[in-house]
Amino acid sequence: MNIKNFLLAGSLITVSSLAVPAFSADLVCQLNVKSGGHVRGNGTSICTGIDFSFGNSTSGQWSITNITKSIDRINWVKGCNSGLSCGVTVRAYALNEAQAYIHYVDGSIEYVQAEMRYETGH
């Protein structure tokens, strides 16, 4: 292979790697604990919280954020039924999960997931 072909091949590899779509959407959680409790991770994909209310559940929210491309539709597997966000009941001592496939107008699909864990001091 001569130097001209080598440089051409290198240029094509560089250009083709730039054409790969970069996904950047996030599925984030917001956990609400009772007064005096503590939460870690709100606004990220893993939220944990504890309070001493001795209840069985609290409230929370799932949201898909940081979307940079036009969305065709969202298929929720767990968490919400439709839309970009929803309020949920977060069960104590259970893994509360959300999963969704984001279908973009350009035909690409992105999978996002998040989880919330809640303890009440039982």
Features:
8 strands, single chain, 122 residues, 3-stranded antiparallel beta sheet, mainly beta, 48% strand, 1 helix, 5-stranded mixed beta sheet
What do you see in this structure?
There is one protein chain. With 122 residues, this protein is mostly beta strands. The protein contains one helix and eight strands. The strands form two sheets. A five-stranded mixed beta sheet has the order 2-3-8-7-5, with no helix packed on it. β7 and β8 form a beta hairpin. 24% of the residues are buried. Keywords: Signal.
Q: Judging from the principal axes of the Cα atoms, what is the shape?
A: elongated
Order of helices and strands: HEEEEEEEE
Question: Which sheet architecture does the biggest sheet show?
Answer: 5 strands, mixed
The structural class is mainly beta
Mean pLDDT: 87
State the end-to-end CA separation: 71 Å
How many β-strand runs? 8
Task: Output the number of helix runs.
Answer: 1
The strand line-up of the biggest sheet is 2-3-8-7-5
Helix percent reads: 10-25%
How much strand? over 45%
Q: Low-confidence stretches at least 5 residues in length (pLDDT < 50)?
A: 12-20
Seen as an oligomer or otherwise, the chain set is single chain
Alpha-carbon Rg, integer: 21 Å
Keywords: Signal
Signal peptide: 1-24
